[in-house]
Amino acid sequence: PTVINNFFDQMEEIIALYKIKPWNFYNMDEKPFIIGFGGRYIICHKRGLLRATQTTAGGHESVTVLEAGSASGVFLPPLILLSGAKGTIGRFRHIADNDTLLPGARVNFTPNGYITRENFSFYIEEHFHPLSLKMMRDPDEHRLIVLDGHDSHLTFRTMQFCYDHKIHVMCFPSHSTHLLQPMDVGVFSPLANFYKQQVLQWSRTSMRQKMRVCDFFPLLHQAREKACTEKNLCSAFAATGLVPLDRERVLRKLPI
């Protein structure tokens, strides 16, 4: 309880001191995905019959999606991190140029599909900052990001950029994101479930095809349309006691 209380004490102080508004209060986190999946799954039909079905197999390539959403229920377009060299970005130019498929999303690359310090600096400077700037209602407003303390997040370059642009950064206490992080509490679980549903649906019409990276984008888009909603995000901020501020919602969940 002491760690949680200290976190909320600091949160309340920052919000009051810098007059943080809900539309400037963001949670940011990464969600890993696998391109396709393989194996045998039991599918129950309407008549109650069970049969084993071989699903589509992908290359099991890891993809990381960076999501940020505000306490007012607005999701920013995601940054999608793919494994590979930067020189291949032209293959996915249709994402940046497409107004209906993941509008506003950007693609970047990482050696193994997981986020690096360079990826996160790019995200903050080139993606989050300009997009969240448009959400501000006054140029003098401050922004607040709450996120986990992953090593890639806390570099001097990123912290200096945030300081220079009135972006405050708070890290959740260790081992508390299942209680305090809105993305974990109310967004990523339905997002993962809807993505699995989209992959299953895709596999039923493409049983002999190996899922490719380019197939991932429309499936992610469809899953985000269902999971990344204003209702889910606002409910998640409320459930974690962040907006409205209510630490008791979290403290009640702690073991006595």
UniProtKB/TrEMBL annotation:
Q: Which InterPro entries match?
A: CenT-Element_Derived, DDE_SF_endonuclease_dom, RNaseH_sf
The scientific name of the source species is Ascobolus immersus RN42
Name it.
CENP-B protein
The organism's superkingdom is given as Eukaryota
Regions annotated as coiled coil: none
DDE-1 domain location, by residue? 64-237
- Alphabetized Pfam families for the sequence: DDE_1
A single GO cellular-component term on record: nucleus
What Gene Ontology terms describe what this protein does at the molecular function level?
Answer: DNA binding
